[in-house]
Design goal:
This protein is an alpha/beta fold. It is built from seven helices and six strands; from the N terminus they run E-H-E-H-E-H-E-H-E-E-H-H-H. The chain is globular, with a radius of gyration of 16 Å.
């Protein structure tokens, strides 16, 4: 995260970070299938990053509905940030890490319980959106995908997010952490 540089691809990539709770994953995947089938987003590749506690086999019934632009993504999260233009998720701190790497974020709010928004309130809302339902998700996705230039998160804003919410690790800091 501290030395992150993103690459621009010929095809846009949206990374979806899935939570550890199966029912929440199903709801999010159904929303992403809706997005991937939208005619305005057919040039977008959607990558689903499973939580380490889950595996693809938990979602075999949904895989039948996947369009060609929707796939599970198995590489390390850090590497995915280098190719991602937009992050979508619901409760992962990786969403804040994405903002620190200059990637806009959409947080999908819960329709069944409490929304666990991991984005600190002090981060400018022009870089992330909290959405409820398919219509809001579609509008936010379209908005972020077509943004370029000054609407994106510049290096100074990325540095501010990193310094305010993250700390690089070294031996001293690890020892201090383990010495409660």
């Amino acid at each position: 995260m501290w030395h992150h540089k993103s690459k621009k691809n010929s095809k846009e990539i949206v990374l979806v970070i899935l939570p550890s709770i199966h029912n929440d994953c199903v709801e999010i995947i159904e929303n992403i299938i809706f997005l991937a089938n939208n005619k305005d987003l057919r040039n977008i590749n959607f990558k689903l990053k499973l939580h380490p506690d889950l595996n693809e086999n938990n979602f075999n019934s949904l895989k039948k509905e996947f369009p060609n632009t929707l796939k599970f993504y198995k590489k390390e999260l850090y590497f995915s940030f280098k190719i991602t233009q937009l992050l979508i998720g619901n409760s992962s701190s990786a969403l804040t890490e994405g903002l620190a790497c200059g990637i806009p974020v959409i947080v999908i709010g819960s329709r069944r319980g409490l929304t666990q928004n991991p984005i600190p309130k002090s981060i400018n809302k022009k870089f992330w959106k909290l959405v409820f339902g398919e219509a809001q998700l579609l509008n936010a996705t379209k908005e972020f995908i077509k943004r370029e230039g000054p609407a994106l998160i510049d290096e100074n804003q990325q540095k501010s997010i990193k310094s305010n919410f993250f700390e690089p690790m070294n031996k001293t800091k690890i020892r201090r952490l383990l010495d409660f």
